[in-house]
Amino acid sequence: MNAIEVEHLSKIFKVQKSRAGLKGALQDLFSRQYNEVPAVNDISFSIPSGEICGYIGENGAGKSTTIKMLTGILVPTSGKLNVGGYVPHEEREKFVRNIGVVFGQRSQLWWDIGVIESFGLLRKVYGVPEQDYKRRLDELVQRLDLGDLLSRPVRKLSLGQRMRCELVAALLHNPSIVFLDEPTIGLDIIVKTEIREFLKDMNRQYGTTILLTTHDLQDIEALCSRVIMLDEGRIIYDGGLDTLKTRWGQGTRITFQFGTACPLPKLQALTSDLAVSWTADNDLHAEVLVSSDLNVSDVLAKVVGQPEITITDIKITETTTDEIVRQIYQTGSAQNNASDGQVV
Amino acid sequence: MLSAYTDFIRIRFLTMLAYRVNYYSGILIYMLNIGVYYFTWQAIYGDRGEIGGFTASQMTTYIAVSWMARAFYFNNLDREIATDIRDGSIAVQFIRPYNYVLVKMMQGFGEGLFRFTLFMIPGMLLALILFPVRLPSDPIAWIGFLVMLFFSFLINSQLNILTGLMAFFVENNDGIMRMKRVIVDLFSGLVIPISLFPGWLSSIMQWLPFQAITYLPGSVFTGRTTGTGILDVFAIQVAWFVILLIPIFFMWRAARKRLFVQGG
User: In chain B, which residues have their Cβ closer than 8 Å to the Cβ of A61?
Assistant: First the structure.
């Protein structure tokens, strides 16, 4: 069963145009002109129950707008939506009982009151029975190590502490679908790891469906089996993280540090029968890119055994997801421009 | 669910209580206002017995009770709503299974309860000592006034909510909010009783909701409206309460469609 189904979803914002100069300002007073800006442009995907899906894209690609439509905050301009059996914006109050939302950049706790009071209020808002609430709260407090934070007012918490409390606030009513909009933004590596572990456990234990947006690809690597990549409001990739790596990965990079000078043409000559590309900053330092259909050992064998070459250091690096994604963002936009909106 | 709404009242009351010291200076400012208007009207009355249907003594009582009623019904719901809309935290309000407008109303009432017990009542006692205020002797007038005072709060809050929700439709509603504040103070009869307005203006006022906030409850408290007259003016308040629900409903619905969450 699909937890989230999206068909041809679009959201177009009308943005007021400001004309230049005093004359323009006066004209704006009487007749306004609007630009239509498509934030999300005809996207379709579905997410089965129990999946953790990463939703990535550059700033302004339309991630948050999608999340806001999926959570019933924004009304779509066109397209069909079904989340957990509801059309979010149509039956908002019933629908939101079943979902949990964390906005990394906005607090949903009440600023002036204690953390535990906020939780108590949320219990009443969601109508969670007292006993379920106690059990759930104990579990979450223990898991996220909140013990001594509970009595403090929210405004006195650090960002890491607050974010852990935000998670509890979003999960107290045990929602079956959870949306996380940049949940790890601004957090240190320890809290990040803690939150990732927690989300993974929750998914395993309760089969919670999770959709998260992030700029930290380590979040994706740690959590998601699937990523949806967005660019200028369109989906440019939807699939497994592994496929992404093999399809866009550039293979392996070997970095050599030489003891004596070794010019680039010589290295190129040594590996002339292999399809590899060399780059060098100077005669003592060179890099070779080995595509994934070649063996790293073959390339190494050609270079390492040579008597006239002294090698002081070898480094072998896999292209990281960051690099792959950066490349897709760049080429993705480029292709969109070149072929007038062709989706990859 | 109902208990959640009452919790909003309780929590706002407690939050206000934490800041109660701020309101001690508020009492002094209100006393100053009452004082200024009291002495001004004293000078205007001189030897005259009655102006616009008010005796000098009724005027004193009217001024005192109007300002102290304002101490109760006043709130900043318009500003709170506009801030929520402008900084985008309205998004968080939409992911909760409750009605945002109703929650704001409850919070306003929590604030009202605080203002009633720790601002209006002590203020009124102080006004009784400082100025020759004459309290009504008829228990009906008391009951009528208190019930109408509650509706003053409702109608004033409804106007605040409408003003606040305008932030959905205009980029900056600061001007509208300031204008609303002046209009409510002037047209509700707080500054000058409506019967003293020029005839044409006073007849326009009868078709606007503002008089229901200060002028009508004030006229019951000062004994200018008595007996079944109380029911008549109360009916005007109830009518305005019901009528104002309509634009709130439509504005909220339109806002849902228009919503443009600021800051991504």
Answer: none
Domain check: are A233 and A314 in the same one?
A: no
Question: How confident is the model over A62-95, as pLDDT tens digits?
Answer: 999 999 999 999 889 999 999 999 999 888 889 9
Mean pLDDT of A27-39: 82
What per-residue confidence (pLDDT) applies to B187? 94
Burial A109-146 (b: 16+ CB within 10 A, else e): bbebbbbbbbbbbbbbbbebeeeebeebbeebbebbeb
Write down the pLDDT at residue B259: 67
Of A72, A106, A124, the CB nearest to B92: A106
> Could you count the other beta carbons within 10 Å of the beta carbon of residue A104?
20
In a domain, A133, yes or no: yes
Whether the Cβ atoms of residue A318 and residue A252 lie closer than 8 Å to each other: yes
Question: Is the per-residue pLDDT at B261 higher than 70?
Answer: no
Answer with the one of A219, A246, A273 that is the final residue of a domain. A246
Between CA A166 and CA A202 the distance in angstroms is 15
- Per-residue model confidence as pLDDT tens digits over A162-199: 999 999 999 999 999 999 999 988 889 988 999 999 99
Q: What secondary structure letter does DSSP report for A114?
A: B
User: Of A225, A246, A267, which residue is a domain's last?
Assistant: A246
Task: Give CA–CA dist B87/A324, Å, rounded.
Answer: 35
Give the model's confidence band at B153: pLDDT under 50 very low, under 70 low, under 90 confident, else very high: very high
Q: What is the DSSP code string of B75-133?
A: --HHHHHHHHHHSSTHHHHHTSSS-HHHHHHHHHHHHHHHHIIIIIHHHHHHHHHHS--
The set of residues, in sequence order, having a beta carbon less than 8 Å from that of B157 and lying 6+ positions away, is B73, B75, B77, B105, B108, B109
**Strand pairing category for A209-213 and A177-181:** parallel
State the pLDDT at residue B116. Answer: 95
ipTM exceeding 0.85, yes/no? no
Residues in chain A whose Cβ is within 8 Å of chain B: 13, 59-60, 64, 68, 71-75, 89, 92-94, 96-97, 99, 101, 103, 105-108, 110, 112-113, 117, 120-121, 124-127
Domain presence at residue A103: yes
Residues A60 and A185 in one domain: yes
The count of structural domains within chain A is 2
Question: In terms of CA atoms, which chain A residue is nearest residue B96?
Answer: A96
| Residue-number span of the structural domain to which A94 is assigned | 2-6+48-246
pLDDT digits (tens, 9 = 90+) for A126-144: 999 999 999 999 999 998 8
pLDDT in tens, B175-222: 999 999 999 999 999 999 998 999 899 999 999 999 999 999 999 999
Asked if A117 and B11 count as a contact pair (C-beta separation under 8 A), the reply is yes
Do A113 and A63 lie in a common domain?
A: yes
B9/chain A closest Cα distance in angstroms: 11
For residue B263, what pLDDT is reported?
44
Verify that A181 and A313 share a domain, yes or no.
Answer: no
Predicted model pTM: 0.84
B4 part of contact set with chain A, CB < 8 Å:
yes
C-alpha–C-alpha distance, residues A140 and A171, integer Å: 9
Strand partners, A234: A231
Judged by CB atoms closer than 8 Å, whether chains meet at B261 and A68 is answered as: yes
